[in-house]
Specification:
mainly alpha, 0% strand, extended
Length: 201
Amino acid sequence: MLIALAFYLFAAIAVAAAVMVVTARNPVHSVLFLILTFFSSAGLFMLAGAEFLALILIVVYVGAVAVLFLFVVMMLDIDIAELRQGVLDYVPLGALIGLIMLVELGLALGVWAFAPEAASSVAAPVHPGLTNTEALGRVLYSDFLYVFQASGLVLLVAMIGAIVLTLRERPGVKRQSIAQQVGRLRAEAVELKDIRPGQGL
């Protein structure tokens, strides 16, 4: 009974916070409601026994992505009144798309049925005596090691590509040149002045 109450509590908070993310007038408030949605989803993952996904959701999304969104929104000078202009023009199209998705979801739920033989076909855990996190780590770093390394390389290439695409060299802006700093001579960096008595400051 307690688990059911916790589930409905987390689910209700997650749905309400997700609605507030879209409907909040202030972008900072939207990001804060997004963080609340992530925390509620993490609670649902904990109730489902997936503690690794819950911690990843908090550490990665709340600790990095949502905080990055918050800093970006707070640093940018966003004109809320300008963003609100023309929103009502997209309401009919958005309502039509939402209605189509609702009908598709209803059709999918209407024909869905649980197959008893599907429960017996589920693969057993690789390491029954381990926790989810440890079992996932062993499978990830043993059976799928090369795939994991390849995904890391893909992310590295994407990061380098984003830096190259957004890097702009503007004239008149001073830039640091490590080769020029290391290769300079003593005469270029130090200047000796012979000041006679009485001519100093």
